[in-house]
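User: Show me a protein chain along with its predicted structure.
Assistant: Here is one chain, sequence first, then structure tokens.
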Amino acid sequence: MGCDQDRWTPPGQGKLDQLSPILQPLQPVKDQVTVITNLRLQNAYPGTHDTSNSAFLSAASAKHTESSDYFSGITADQIAAAEMGRETQVASLQLAMDLNPLAGVCNNGYSCVYQNCLSWSSPTTPLPSEAHPRVVFERLFGEGGNASSRRAALRYRASLLDSFTTEIARLKQRVGVPDRARLDQYLESIQQVEREIKRAEQAVAENKTPDLERPVGVPARAAGRARLHRAGWGHLIAFQFTREQSNRTYPEIGVRDPHHPTSHHGNDPYKVAQIAKINTYHVSLFSQFLQRMKATPDGEGSLLDHSVYLYGSGMGNPSLHDHENLPILVAGGASTGLQGGRHIRYEKPANLANLHLTLLERVGVKMDSFVDSTGKVEGLFDRIDVG
């Protein structure tokens, strides 16, 4: 939902000698972080919270609709998941902090699906984010954490899918062409789950993961995500710290006013300072996650050494609802070739799609362009072959 750009942007450029006030929590991992200034999202205009969220990973325009005929673009994480997740049980996860996603029309005549979903597997297939740790756990491991419980849960899911597939096939015979297309999308989703089940059955048979306890409350998100990476359950995770137009308050950091109204600060110094507090808090959570990844062994290095993360927002100045000078940073470790500890500052605005294209290439996805990209982010990574 944007940021206080003055407190976000580090001074100077090149070597990241000094972190800005909002980025101070990243000090322990500063050498694994590169800040990129003056990126924009042209296709997020006319400047709404809905288009800000839907365009962040897709760089695509969202169809202006209040109904179910929504249309955006496949997101970069899903392009990467299709390439990287072929051998994993769950190719990608969509997680969130905010509960109870909104329904219907959210903002300026746009369907709430644009705010609720950060990831899209196709222009017409949004992937809802999950905020309940138990639900995520049960998707991965079943009702219980031991191997026999996981096998039983997988058999049950498989039997449900069989019945769903049969019913949808019958329904297709009774509906028109547009509805058949929508049903085909549902069938593709079911087939994807079937593929996940087959991979999961193999993983359970080989007992690659230890017995795990199902969470009973809301665990530390950072710890949970780090464990998922270590277990090899998912290569791509899209995590939504706050939903656009969120009215969450943050009494734990002294912010008792709702986030969204506060973001419309009108340059009121008090409100701007409150937004900066929220921005700093979110960065601190991200830093905790990076530090845990850095401390977790993986091969000859750490999990962070073998990971790349994009952090940011599709909105720049929330009071103006613009999509200029976005708060963007990339974090990663030695094996990724990321040239960390740097501040890349564009003199003229550059498209965020350039960064997506650069990141996709780094994880092995070869593309000539991505949406409105005009090139790549030069100097972000070492020129090494990553496969």
